[in-house]
Fold this protein.
Amino acid sequence: MDKISKLLKLRKEKINEIREGGTPLYPNDFKPTCTVSQIKSIILEEEETLGEEGRQFHLAGRMMAVNKMGKSSFVRFQDSGEQMQVYIQKNKVGDEVYALFKKLDIGDFIGVSGPLFKTRTGEWTVLANGFRLLAKAVRPLPEKFHGIKDPEKRYRQRYLDLIMNEKAREIFTKRSAIVAAMRRFFEDQGYMEVETPMMQPLPGGAEATPFKTWHNALGMELFLRIAPELYLKRLVVGGFEKVFEINRNFRNEGVSTRHNPEFTMVEFYQAYATYDDLMDLTEVMFEHIVRTVSGSTSLEYQGDTIDFSQGWKRIPMIDSLSEIGGIDPAILNDTQALLDYAEKHDIHITKKDRHGKVLTKLFDTLVEPKLIQPTFITGYPVEVSPLSRKSDSDPELTDRFELFIAGREIANGFSEINDPEDQNNRFLMQVRQRDEGNDEAHIMDSDYVEALEFGMPPTAGEGIGIDRLVMLLTDSPSIREVILFPHMKQNA
């Protein structure tokens, strides 16, 4: 029998003993009056009023450490990630309660009542005059000294990670603050929060492979959305001129340190705005969020200091390939010369007949990893931008940008196509690409084209990957660190 099996056997024996003694294992009538965090604030503000004859407190939490000393013991318990010490004496709580306490284990939930006092070491401690078992844990927690070393175990059993790992709790607390700050920013800017379908009859809004499902009552195939874009723009057609949505997208693609098949994005759309306006707005928003959650406009990410103060670099993609990627500007318009360059530098390109695809692949390899400080790359080719408005100065390019920070894409935005004929032609171009074997090309969406035919004002829209933003603001190297329950292969 292994160690865990032995501990489980011992714990179940204790559980039976406690149950047979008449003590409820899982009562639901204890009401805490404050949290550890609140008590710490009270200590700072009202220390002179506290003491053994002072205010009584009722607290509840999980036992994290026990030091049993015969007729008295110290217990360290935790609620919402904060810990406090309890001193329990046999002569204070009575023989029966103390006997029950000695049968309990680390991981059990307890309720304690009593005043506060200072120990000889100066630590404020609850002096228990009341003590109850609130929930018995069957399985033992990992040993505190060793913690959970295996990342896979941390991700698969995130609840244990949150119990034992203060850094994990801090990451997800900060994630909540980031999303809250973003939501307040949009509301202050006059945007309305909306919700659009997660299950869609056509997957649209991005080039990606969707997840498929089936609706029995409707008798039809549906797709988990890869993006909310086309529905949000329908709302602009309908007269909601500033909208945003924070929600999940689903893409049937690989899993890596930067990708999870289920991920969170914010998408927002504004009538009578251009992609330049959204770049300005993005700078203001990111600076606001970073300052709100970090207290500064700069932070450390994996050894680099990232400066989020406004005035970010903006550079056309074609220029970045020469200035940052090192490609001779003389060959940037020569597809075959670029393919020869790619082959020489071991860059694999599949869509060899499309100049825009070749440029984009070279950019992904040669430029993107070098964009550490916040940088907008503009002027994407029409071939890779099926929903972006064509540039008035160069019809081969679009009024589109992508934002890169720490060598990865964080946001994608553009002035929207509101010419229904142009949008229909772009969809047809994508359909041809699907016929040629590009499974991720956009599907024809005639209903969306019909919506545009009713008229959409000049509009700009943007999507921001919240998981990647949280990675930046928590100095997390992997997307799995910032998603509570990341997708993983099943254990064999």
Q: What stands out?
A: The radius of gyration is 29 Å. The domain at 3-141 is CATH 2.40.50.140 (OB fold (Dihydrolipoamide Acetyltransferase, E2P)).
